[in-house]
Amino acid sequence: MKKLLILISILISLQVQAQRTSAPEGPGSLTFWENLSKHCGKSFEGEMLNASENDQFYGKKLVMHVRTCEDGKITVPFHVGDDHSRTWVLTMEEGNLIKLKHDHRHEDGTEDRVTQYGGLSSNTGMAKVQFFPADQETTDLIPYAATNVWWITLDDTSFTYNLRRINNNSPIIVKFDLTKEVETPPTPWGWED
């Protein structure tokens, strides 16, 4: 656990240093939003950086698709093999804060019992990283997830989705290669073209 926390601290400090050397004017959230929007319509393959054989993603093809970039809303379906149930929904809120929600659907399009969890960025963050601590809706829906923190890193070559559960030694880290587009997966369950 201590080694993991040290690693996370090092990664964050490297992101901060990189940000300081190329800090754009304005809130980091707006630059992050603009940079993610540049990938609209594109799909990229990823990998679990810390997968074990008992992980639900182990051995499956992982693809993210920056599907829609509307005014104030970006949807990013996350396809796990033939499972098209997950979509990350990012919305720009007042004060240039970004909200991350996880939309989970069944194959027939109906919402899963556990859906719409996530959080609101606690500040405008940096152009290359946004943090989302669990919100009250998440706490009410999934009490054990009250201490979850999600974060997304974004640079010219990669998009990384991360989840850290406090009191759990196994963070989830999925890194996508933005330098190689892949074929767009099917429409995610419950969404229309």
Automatic annotation (TrEMBL):
Where does the record locate the signal sequence feature? 1-18
Species lineage: Bacteria, Pseudomonadati, Bacteroidota, Cytophagia, Cytophagales
- Which keywords has UniProt assigned to this entry? Signal
Name its species: Belliella baltica (strain DSM 15883 / CIP 108006 / LMG 21964 / BA134)
Identification of the protein by name: Secreted protein
